[in-house]
Amino acid sequence: MEQRKGRRLILFPLPLQGHINPMLELANILYFKGFSITIIHTNFNSLNPSTHPHFTFHSISENLSESEAAEKDLLLLLSHLNAKCCLPFRKCLATLVSDVSKEPVACLISDPVFDFTQSVAESLKIPRILLRTGGASFTAVLSAFPILQEKGYFPKQDSRLEEPVTEFLPLRVKDLPMINSSDPKRFFKLVHDLTYETKASYGFIFNTFEDLEQHALAKIRKELHIPIFAIGPFHKCVPVTTSTSSLISQDQSCISWLNTQPSKSVIYVSFGSIAAINEAQFLEIAWALANTKQRFLWVVRPGLVQGSEWLEPLPSGFLESLNGMGHIVKWAPQKEVLAHQAVGVFWTHNGWNSTLESICEGVPMICFPFSADQMVNARYVSDVWKIGLQLELGIQRGEIERAIRRLMMEKQGEEMRERLSKLKDKVNLCLRQGGSSYQSLNGLVNHILSLES
Ligand code: UDP
């Protein structure tokens, strides 16, 4: 723990699991660097202050209606949040910066998806730095959206999905970022917010490291003339803490079950906090897992299967037929699971956090991206870093079984583990004194201390 700096940082996470986790990890890192931390959070998916007693929490009442809070169209939900959070956030931030009983506020660190934070910060004369919760490669693709649109890649045409995107090889048209919504314009507005509106910020913080995304980081630095800090992987930066920012309680039975399984024998399956599948896909996954006769730990989040509460679509007797080879939970302590010696493969949707967590533990991936940045991440995993296999044909039990076999039992899996082991060494090096993330973090601290609000 470094000496206290006499400066307060205000962090404002987007209330989605994949955005909350890295923001709170970043808060921990900056706390250890000597800053006082205040977190502003929404009532929607509100945080539990007792999990981080060393931070100060302030909740804002954005008052989403019940139907708005239950909105399944992610972009519409984000648009409700943007519309309703602006005023209460402004009020809360104004109170915090004028509180002379506390250390002066050095800056606001916010999520670029909250589009109003720039104008609010500007009006209160608070510098704003952005945490980009996605990878740098994805961010580089977003920056090129106007060109990609001009070249006719959007709307994506079914007949062109397998074509290469020559500007971003090895991406294919199907890999370009997209979030489906009842109004396609919402996605392009979000991209606009994430690119143009962010240029006015005092810098970007990335949860990545130079050796992984050097080219993309160089591209972003060349295009945007703002400081870029690649200080990840966040969760490996600070001394291990037991604090969790999980919105759903983590089922610890995973770990006791894993403790009884042989080394590298288990396929861990999880598609993160948002992705949803239909009943037919759910059953296809279930049969593929059962047919391979490999051990598996499967996170079936309530809401994962559209129209079902939880496991009801499984045929009766399915669980018993597994003879203890499978364990299903609603939510897992994922980082602990991936670090467990029994886990051999991660079947993932390639959210950026999951991808990075898998890399840090040296676990090869079966990639099944759904939306947003996941397709870009998955292509990098399979075709650039070559540490995973992508299910190119959707969810089909034959292809799934083949992928599992190749990763668990064949040479290809071994080769991936070797590449991952080298990447893991690079993670350790970048965080050590003199390493790229270590230095970039010191650069960030100095940058924050140099800001005059
Ligand atoms: N996670 C978890 N338990 C689970 C599934 C996921 O703790 O059962 C965590 C995971 O470790 C990661 C986050 O939830 O930090 C998911 O973020 P990601 O970017 O991978 O995907 P998203 O949920 O945003 O689609």
TrEMBL record:
Coiled-coil residue windows: none
Stored Pfam families: UDPGT (PF00201)
Top-level division of the source organism's lineage: Eukaryota
Q: Which GO terms describe its molecular function?
A: quercetin 3-O-glucosyltransferase activity; quercetin 7-O-glucosyltransferase activity
UniProt keyword annotation of Transferase present: yes
Q: Which SUPFAM superfamilies match?
A: UDP-Glycosyltransferase/glycogen phosphorylase
Which PANTHER family would you find in this protein's record?
Answer: GLUCOSYL/GLUCURONOSYL TRANSFERASES, UDP-GLYCOSYLTRANSFERASE 76F1-RELATED
Task: Tell me which family the UniProt entry assigns to this protein.
Answer: Belongs to the UDP-glycosyltransferase family.
Q: What is this protein called?
A: UDP-glycosyltransferase 76F1
